[in-house]
Amino acid sequence: MSIPATLQYDADGLVPVAVQDYESRDVLMLAFMNREALESTIATGRVTYWSRSRRKLWVKGETSGFRQYLKAIYVNCENNSLLIEAEQIGAACHEGYRTCYYRRLTPTGDALEQVQEQIAEPY
User: What is the pLDDT of residues 15-68, one digit of tens each?
Assistant: First the structure.
């Protein structure tokens, strides 16, 4: 497998990854990948990330059962971030929402309002 040599990782060897539902186009989450996570994602079709808090690879859904299946990977113009289109099974958010972006700022910017319903128990 050959990952483009032009892909730029940060000082920790990570690249930010925006994840989008391939059908609804909803932005599901933001995570990070190292080279090994990217290679695993391509090889298996199961989206795999690098967990910065646990300091290890994390296959989305390995504990929750809410998996992501790879549909496409895009690289931005500066070669320093990825956009993954995925088939999301269940909640993408560990709080039990379909997307991590289930809240928005009120027009005055002083509060958050919930704009989605929780679809699963937090995990």
Answer: 999 999 999 999 999 999 999 999 999 999 999 999 999 999 999 999 899 999
Q: Contacts from 24-32 at CB under 8 Å and sequence distance 24+?
A: 26/98, 26/99, 26/101, 27/99, 27/101, 28/68, 28/86, 28/88, 28/92, 28/93, 28/98, 28/99, 28/100, 28/101, 29/92, 29/93, 29/99, 29/100, 30/100
How far, in Å, CA of 109 to CA of 41, rounded? 37
Is the entire prediction scored with pTM above 0.85? yes
Q: Which of 30, 92, 86 is nearest to 65 (CA)?
A: 92
**Which residue in 70, 85, 77 sits closest to 39, CA to CA?**
70
Phi first, then psi, for residue 70 (nearest 5°) are: -65, 135
